Amino acid sequence: MGLQRNVYPSYEGGKESIETRNTMIKIILKRGRDESLRRFHPWVFSGAIADIQGNPSEGDLVSVHASDGECLAYGHFQVGSIAVRVLSFDDSALRPDFWEVMLSRALQVRIATGLHCTSQTSEPCPEITTNCYRLVHGEGDNLPGLIIDYYDGVCVLQAHSVGMFRAKKQISDALQKVYGPELKAVYDKSSGTAPFKAGLDLIDGYLYQKEGFSDDEQVVMENGQKFMVNWTEGQKTGFFLDQRDNRALVGQMAKGRNVLNLFCYTGGFSIYALANGAEHVDSVDSSKKAMMMVDRNVEINGFDPSRHTSLCCDAIEYLKNVPEGKYDLMIVDPPAFAKHRGALKNALRAYQRLNAAAISKVAPGGLVFTYSCSQVVDKEAFALAVFSAAAQTGRSVRILDRLNQPCDHSVNIYHPEGEYLKGLLLYVE
User: Fold this and answer.
1) In 3-state terms, what secondary structure has residue 62?
2) DSSP string across 303-319
3) Tens digit of pLDDT for each residue in 103-148?
4) Distance (Å, rounded) from C-alpha 138 to C-alpha 160?
5) Which ranges in the chain are annotated with CATH 2.30.130.10?
6) Which positions are catalytic?
7) Going by CATH, does the domain composed of 15-94 fall within 2.30.130.10?
8) Residue 227 and residue 224: Cα distance in Å, rounded?
């Protein structure tokens, strides 16, 4: 029995949706090139297109049809190898309440997983220890090209496509309806993610601010730890939420250890290690602004500053010069070494060299948490790079755990490419 197409909420079709369908630009696929859409993959590649009926601008909402005329999906048109990012496999994308419905669905997932508590639930809210999470994770929440992170009432939006950028006002309005009085602000930070060749006005700024809102000294909590967040000047949306579960695991194993946190950014792993009894933590990053945030995070959590050292320098160079055995827990969490497939070979060599250095330097009985956030590097390739690194050192190494992204960075089962974060916990004898 085949899958039914109405995988999104059903709506009563009205005059508006009928008129929209009649005037909409149509994408006609080549014969036999509709199979991926019938399996609910959210991308249409340009090579699969036989004809375009109309003259779409980048970001326009278009309908996608099989060669026999059957309507399969609706999505945002764009220039490039991915020609359409699918918003729905029925006509729900045509409805005026589409954004509200989709954002409500995303929030319900975060409520179900315990990341958000609302007064609308029947059970009273427990003491809040985490008030930041990812609300929308692109394809994982059936909204390709859109990222929204939530920081204690502030939603930070990043559009990765022209269609999502053009819809940011509607998205902001929908967020106000979904969160109600809980929402303090919506900040657009798309200047570094939206296609710069599309001629868009890529200036970051607030789309909504509640009366009395101020973004001075914003502090969020994650598992009871406090972190400064700077969404106006920081990388990405201001704080890397995808390592939440892995930071907690580091905390579980940090007691009594000397810890090295490489590529530390604002010191997430360092704070968890200090909170859970690490003997000493060294945090290393080449960014002066990041290191200032690390020091501020150590301060606001009330840790003894003598237990922590900030080192503003190149992480790879620092590791090369580390005496063997100085650290018995290392975190190796570099930025993406490969952002496209053309860089894959060089990236794997870089992962191998970096992990060989870490494995060779960690003390006997030490732990190495190593990660890759490169989407084009799959789990098997990353594991092979780390295996090669271990073999190069000649040390006995065990894999204690395989690490992933958390539940708010969900992966659409029909889009396995969304599983980008992978890691290994190593025990080195």
Assistant:
1) strand
2) --GGGEEEEES-HHHHH
3) 999 999 999 999 998 765 556 677 889 999 999 999 999 999 999 9
4) 9
5) 15-94
6) 373
7) yes
8) 10
